[in-house]
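Complex 64.
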Amino acid sequence: MAKEFYIAAEDCLACGSCAELCPDCFRFEEGAMEHAEVTSFDCPEEKVQEAMDNCPGQCIFWKE
Ligand code: SF4
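Predicted structure with iron/sulfur cluster bound:
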């Protein structure tokens, strides 16, 4: 099973970077959403990790 992860929405800066890097698992629509959301866990772990590493809010985390 794919490793699960989440966005701590209160820290999301609504930059859209995660959705650009990994559009299959993150969604963000500028103007329509106040923060990004997770839409699927079915993404390569390295893509999710890349989104985490590039998140300016440092608010994407692996679930324990
Ligand atoms: S990269 Fe981080 S701060 Fe930017 S939209 Fe995604 S979760 Fe929010």
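The first strand starts at residue 5 and ends at 7.
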